[in-house]
Specification:
With 975 residues, this protein is of the alpha+beta class. The protein has four domains: 30-306 and 504-527, Metalloenzyme, LuxS/M16 peptidase-like (Cytochrome Bc1 Complex, Chain A, domain 1, 2-Layer Sandwich); 317-495, Metalloenzyme, LuxS/M16 peptidase-like (Cytochrome Bc1 Complex, Chain A, domain 1, 2-Layer Sandwich), CATH 3.30.830.10; 541-744, Cytochrome Bc1 Complex, Chain A, domain 1 (2-Layer Sandwich), CATH 3.30.830; 769-973, Cytochrome Bc1 Complex, Chain A, domain 1 (2-Layer Sandwich). Helix content is 43%, strand content 19%. The chain is built from 39 helices and 27 strands. An eight-stranded mixed sheet has the order 1-2-3-4-8-5-7-6, with helices on both faces. Strand 18 and strand 19 form a beta hairpin. The longest helix is centred in the N-terminal third of the chain and has 20 residues, at 104-123.
Length: 975
């Protein structure tokens, strides 16, 4: 413990309070506020109409993260129209009277008719009459779609090279997101300003069908059901618990376009909204452009959401949720909301309970293997906050027993049975997390967004770590004693058939026109605009990475080195080209290390020390390679490296820990068979490789039982005696790094030969076939898999172009046809994939998640796209612009430089593929991807991998797509 005390003394000496303060400044006619000492250097503007604009410059790459958000989320939905904010989010991708339409005057007449038909539909209680009205809605919608242009917004974003185009609705807000090239600011502002000027609710009934699918996905998801039950019982008065974001089935079946429109004009007003941009720009010129673009918006009074205060919870509330997934529990306590002293205290107290390394749950329950997993944290919302805690039981352990174990750890906080130095360790890790978050445009943007939505003074974020460090052990004890008693909600997620399972029944919809080749004058104007091109920066191994060696006493180890000139964070890997397909016990050894100590330190002490140093360590292995990694604050590098090397070379076996680990692994295996994601992964592996595949290349339970602790310890201790190299990104100068590694990195004089790798044969899809796994669910998930020829790097530019056109994003063919036109699925994609290593096959994979009764239609629709590529020269031009812009504006930096070097080596490349994408992509024609589609995709045999309930699927229809093979879970998983 002397070493631990010295570390704490060192870290305490580093803490210095800073003089943070708000200041105002002027940029032309614009006044902005900023905080001296704010690492984001964010500038806060309020325009004359009340619009909040937050700008943070970051020149790391020529791109900008944008968020436009309104303080209108599901809690502000009318009680008679829940889900309305979420509907509206979907509809704000449909265009205005200037884009998204061929002829607005003609379209408007039909849309007005649809408005009235929906009002009649909603007021009618006679089901026969409702069917007649909906048939009329479907008919008029089909006519209206002939005057509409689907996905023009998405096409605009693809055209300007935007990435990550999306939106989300939560309790508090609706936010619209893009990552744009720095040279497209003017076009982006033009589109976004128009987007919110006069949104038109066109193509509504097919989008509503997508929302139905989204609802059904949530009804199929045990985690969603647990979350909703938890909030419903925590919040009896507040809309956090009374309403869900997607809305009720009844309200989904009875939407009102008039109410949606009313909601927009009430809430999407500048004094209720913010615009956030983080990235490569000059704030003083950008603010003028933003003001010009959005000055048309007029402020309105927005009444704040009001609610009756929640009654105290005086005794535990316990509920059960049934579903096919594995069992677990989730419990929560309620607290005051964002900005309160209680929310700050909650953050600290929750980290004392669970921080992933040295919290009481981490050390006393997970590390000591009393449960199979446990964690939690603070979830801070504007009006209330919660402490949530989640845990998984061991085999034979009751969830009620797990709950008691968690409650016992909470009691320890009340009694002060934790080290007060943990508070400063948490502060150190908060500082590290802040640096990590501020490294990325998106990290900054979302933190700024949270503060705006929660109406927090940004100073609270800037001073957050400082305020945490001012809290004492007694503060935490008193707070926990006051707020955590028998006032919790506990949801037991149990395995079983849900007798109350619901489903949104969807009406029959006639596919609509998407007018793929049409283009509105507004879009043409953006397409014809000229911008100054951004010069690409390509990766050059000899210039971007220092290739050197570490001269240890026993051997020279190759070193790939990149200096971090931005901050004090480092990341270091020992990279070994050996994985579980070389050594089946390797992943078990890697997992075992978590529970081991050294000859001088227990496993718990080691976790505490690493957390105190604000450093993370770990080992991970996949089929072919392993990474032993260390990361954190460079000032603590030497101490962390010594501790890391000591653990690897001097770990001590623990027979009890192994026994518990094996028991947990067996329970994990049982749980995996209840997880539809794992089952689907197994099906895809079977389709690619056949019955003998990487997914089921597992030890039997008998082989697990035969593992001895000395076997695993020997693997850990010898892991660095296999040929490896060091990958380092951090602020250390190269000679100092080499010196530290030479002194502390322990390797043998001769490397152990790496065992021969188990190889798997790829299936040749010479004929069509169908694989089926039975799972209790409302939806079905269908994947198309085909192994193609061996990878040829010459095809890469064509592959990238094809993927951009076919299924790259919401402007792609698959999304337009499957979702926009036919409304068959909420989620669907198609992609031609190239391997990560040379001499391996390429692969075509497509996917649709749809209702079981829509399976046949969905398969027919995707097969049509796979066999005949729809032609759209305009979409191709947009896809080409998107591909080339992203090649120009993407940047490889930080640790990505190290992994880029590895990936090029695996593929046998000595150049950055983006250089060829730019040179060849700019010359490409639609006929090139058409020919590619014909050669590699069209009219080929595919394996259909289907996950769904046999009771709900039409099995005779499935057999039409090839011989049907139902695969048992035992065969699928290999145990």
């Amino acid at each position: 413990m002397k070493y631990l005390s010295l570390v704490f003394l060192f870290l305490f000496s580093q803490v210095n309070a800073q003089d943070y303060r708000w200041t105002s400044d002027q940029s032309g006619p614009y006044t902005y506020k900023t905080i001296i000492g704010d690492p984001t250097e964010a500038k806060f503007y309020t325009l004359d109409n009340g619009l909040t604009v937050i700008l943070s410059e970051n020149k790391d790459k020529p791109r900008i993260q944008t968020i436009i958000s309104t303080k209108a989320g599901s809690k502000t939905d009318p009680s008679s129209h829940t889900g309305l904010a979420h509907y509206l989010e979907h509809m704000l991708f449909k265009g205005t009277d200037k884009y998204g339409t061929l002829n607005w005057e003609k379209e408007k007449v039909l849309l007005d008719q649809i408005d009235e038909l929906y009002e009649k539909y909603n007021s009618s209680k006679d089901e026969a009459q409702r069917k007649i009205i909906y048939k009329a809605i479907d008919s008029v919608s089909g006519l209206a779609s002939k005057q509409a242009i689907a996905n023009e917004y998405d096409k605009l974003m693809a055209m300007i090279g935007a990435k990550g185009t999306n939106a989300f609705t939560s309790f508090e807000e609706t936010a619209y997101i893009n990552d744009i090239p720095a040279n497209q600011i003017d076009n982006w502002l033009k589109v976004e300003a128009e987007r919110f000027r006069n949104p038109i609710l066109r193509i509504f009934h097919t989008e509503l069908e997508a929302v139905y699918e989204e609802k059904n996905r949530s009804l199929d998801d045990d985690g969603s059901k647990v979350f909703e039950a938890l909030f419903a019982n925590l919040f009896k008065n507040h809309n956090y618990g009374k309403q869900t974001t997607i809305g009720t089935i009844e309200h989904l079946r009875n939407p009102s376009l008039k109410e949606i429109r009313k909601y927009f004009y009430k809430n999407y007003v500048p004094n209720n909204m913010c615009l956030i941009m983080v990235g490569d720009f000059e704030a003083e010129t950008l603010i003028e452009k933003i003001d010009r673009s959005f000055s048309y918006m007029k402020p309105k009074n927005v009444n704040p959401y009001t609610f009756k205060a929640e009654e105290p919870i005086t005794s535990p509330i316990e509920k059960e949720i049934l579903g096919p997934d594995a069992e677990y529990l989730m419990m929560a306590y309620r607290f005051p909301g964002a900005g309160s002293k209680e929310a700050l205290m909650l953050d600290l107290m929750s980290s004392i309970l669970s921080n992933g390394s040295a919290g009481l749950l981490d050390l006393n329950l997970v590390k000591q293997q009393k449960v199979r997993g446990a964690g939690g944290g603070a979830y801070v919302l504007k009006d209330y906050s919660i402490l949530y805690l989640q845990a998984n039981a061991k085999e034979g352990q009751k969830l009620e027993e797990v709950k008691e174990l968690i409650l016992n750890e909470i009691e320890k906080i009340k009694k002060g049975e934790f080290d007060e130095k943990l508070i400063q360790a948490i502060v150190n890790n908060v500082n590290k997390a802040e640096i990590q978050s501020n490294e990325s445009n998106s990290g900054r943007a979302y933190t700024l967004l949270d503060a705006f939505i929660q109406e927090q003074d940004w100073m609270q974020n800037v001073r957050y770590a400082e305020e945490l460090s001012a809290l004492s052990k007694k503060d935490i004890q008193d707070f926990t004693s006051k707020w955590l008693g028998n006032n919790y909600v506990c949801i037991y997620k149990r395995s079983g058939k849900d007798p109350n399972a619901l489903k949104v029944d969807k009406p029959q919809i006639t596919p609509i026109s998407v007018n793929r080749d049409a283009q509105s004058p507004f879009v043409q104007d953006v397409a014809n605009s000229t911008v100054e091109e951004i010069e690409p920066v390509f990766f050059e191994l000899e210039n971007d990475i220092v290739q050197s060696v570490v001269k240890t006493p026993n051997a020279e180890i190759p070193l790939l080195y990149v200096q971090n000139e931005k901050n004090d964070l480092f990341t270091q890997y020992y990279y070994i080209e050996m994985g579980s397909h070389h050594m089946r016990l390797l992943p078990y050894a890697m997992n075992y290390l978590e529970y081991l100590g050294s000859s001088t330190k227990s496993a718990e002490t080691i976790s505490k020390l690493f957390y105190t140093l604000a450093c993370d360590f770990g080992v991970s292995s996949n089929a072919r390679e392993s990474y032993v990694y260390l990361s954190g604050l460079q000032k603590n590098y030497t101490e962390a490296l010594q501790l890391f090397e000591e653990l690897l070379s001097d770990c001590i076996m623990d027979e009890r820990a192994l026994k518990e680990m094996i028991a947990d692994e067996k329970k994990n295996r049982l749980d995996s068979k209840k997880n539809k994601g794992a089952i689907r992964s197994g099906l895809i592996n079977w389709a690619r490789y056949g019955a003998d595949n990487p997914f089921n290349y597992e030890l039997s339970n008998e082989e697990l039982d035969a593992i001895r602790p000395e076997q695993l310890v020997e693997i850990i201790r010898s892991i660095l005696n296999y040929k490896h190299e060091v990958l380092y990104y951090g602020p250390a100068e190269l000679p100092e790094l080499q010196s530290q590694l030479a002194k502390h990195h322990k390797v043998a004089k001769e490397f152990i030969p790496i065992p021969e790798r188990k190889k798997f044969s790829y299936q040749k899809q010479d004929s069509k076939s169908v694989l089926l796994a039975d799972y209790d669910m409302v939806q079905s998930e269908i994947s198309w898999i085909r192994n193609n020829e061996t990878y040829d790097t010459k095809l890469e530019p064509t592959v990238r172009m094809f993927n951009e056109y076919f299924g790259g994003n919401m402007s792609g063919i698959v999304f337009q046809d499957i979702r926009e036109s036919k409304a068959l699925a909420y989620s669907s994609y198609g992609s031609f994939r190239t391997p990560s290593r040379a001499n391996e096959p390429m692969q075509m994979i497509a996917y649709i998640g749809c209702q079981s009764d829509k399976m046949k239609e969905s398969i027919t629709a995707m097969n049509a796209l796979l066999n005949e590529l729809p032609t759209s020269e305009k979409l191709f031009t947009n896809s080409q612009k998107s591909l080339l812009t992203n090649a120009r504006t993407s940047r490889i930096n930080k640790t990505s430089l190290l992994f880029k070097a590895l990936s090029m080596r695996k593929l046998g490349l000595d150049y950055d593929m983006r250089s060829r994408i730019l040179s060849e992509g700019s010359k490409m024609k639609f006929t090139d991807i058409k020919k590619f589609h014909e050669n590699y995709i069209a009219n080929k045999a595919y394996t259909l991998a289907v996950l769904g309930s046999k009771d709900k699927l039409d099995l005779s229809a499935l057999k039409a797509y090839g011989p049907l093979q139902e695969i048992s879970l035992e065969k699928l998983f290999g145990y």
